Structures are given as C-alpha cells and as structure tokens.
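User: Just a sanity check before I run the rest of the batch. Below are the structure tokens for the first item. I only need the designed sequence back.
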C-alpha cells in the first residue's frame, strides 16, 4: 500500500504568510503526518503530492527524504485525481494537516478499511467534532446523520478513471487524532492551546 500525503494546498484560510504545513506544533505539522506514516509500518512507499502553492513545504519534505510528486495545485480533488493514475496498488490518502496523528490510529484505519472497495473514506460524526469545539465547513448525510470528512481515504486507483464518480464506502471513526485538521487560524489556536 502507498501512503499518499496531500500537501499542495494554498492554505488561504490561515491568513498567514507562512505555509500552513510548516506551522509548528512541537515539529512542523507535516512532519507529524510523515513520521506517523513511516512508523506505522503499513506502507511500501510514502509519497507527498506537492505543488507550486507550497514550495517551502516541498523543500522541507525533500530534505526529510520524502519522495515528492508535483500536481497542478488546482485543488484537493483535482490534484488527487491527477496523481492517483501513477499507482497500481491501494493508496492510503491523507491530508498533510493532521498534527495529532500517530502510528496506532493509522494501523487501526488500515485494519478497518481493507482494500476491496474502490474508495473508502473515513468520516467523523458532527456530534464528536462539536464535543471537541471543532467547526466543520462541509458535512455529508450518511445513515440519516451528519458527518465530516477526516481527510483520509483508501483508494484502489486501478478502478478510478478520468474523475468519473465512483461508489464511496464509509468508515466512521470518532477519534481526536484524526478530527483536528488545521484549516484556519482558529484550528491552529485550538491546537496550540491543547
């Protein structure tokens, strides 16, 4: 399985000149994600999807010894679909902005999801996010309840073609380690206060 870290976004909602994934929480945020993937032992290779939107992040990753692949930087969905065609084995897709991530939660997710489905996405309940004082911009309705995306999916890229819709299955996992995505200054302030 390939570990694919999405880290080419602009981070415009942060309202800072510093690249979002290089903000620190003990270490740069992206380093928490990379280290967790490496230490989980679940992946044959770890790849970072980068873009011109975050050149210092790409440089940081290269200095860590992480293999990078450039995307257009047009947006998460577009960039992800663009890069998936480079792989012929299951891909564990994860956002680079999950500073509380650790190897154990990655192992749990890999065990819970399997690789038979085309696209399995990890979602978090609205109630759980609210209990952590986290706001969500986008929600989906699944089994008549509201959920938010965690930024984690397992994808079979051999079954995905030209950005056509695919059947998506869901795994619900209410866990603090994957609940806090750093998208806004408020998210970052909440992280630093914890």
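Assistant: Here's the designed sequence for the first item:
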């Amino acid at each position: 399985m390939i570990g694919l870290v999405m880290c080419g976004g602009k981070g415009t909602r942060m309202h800072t000149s510093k690249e979002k994934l290089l903000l620190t929480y003990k270490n740069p945020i992206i380093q928490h994600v990379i280290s967790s993937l490496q230490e989980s032992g679940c992946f044959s290779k770890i790849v970072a999807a980068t873009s011109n939107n975050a050149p210092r992040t790409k440089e940081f990753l290269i200095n860590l010894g992480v293999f990078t692949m450039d995307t257009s930087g047009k947006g998460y969905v577009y960039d992800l679909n663009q890069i998936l065609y480079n792989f012929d084995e299951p891909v564990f897709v994860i956002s680079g902005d999950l500073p509380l991530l650790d190897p154990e939660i990655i192992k749990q997710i890999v065990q819970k999801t399997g690789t038979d489905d085309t696209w399995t996405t990890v979602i978090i309940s609205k109630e759980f996010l609210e209990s952590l004082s986290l706001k969500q911009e986008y929600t989906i309705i699944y089994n008549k309840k509201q959920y938010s995306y965690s930024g984690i999916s397992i994808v079979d890229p051999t079954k995905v073609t030209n950005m056509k819709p695919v059947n998506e299955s869901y795994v619900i996992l209410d866990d603090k380690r994957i609940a806090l995505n750093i998208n806004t200054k408020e998210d970052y302030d909440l992280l630093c206060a914890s």
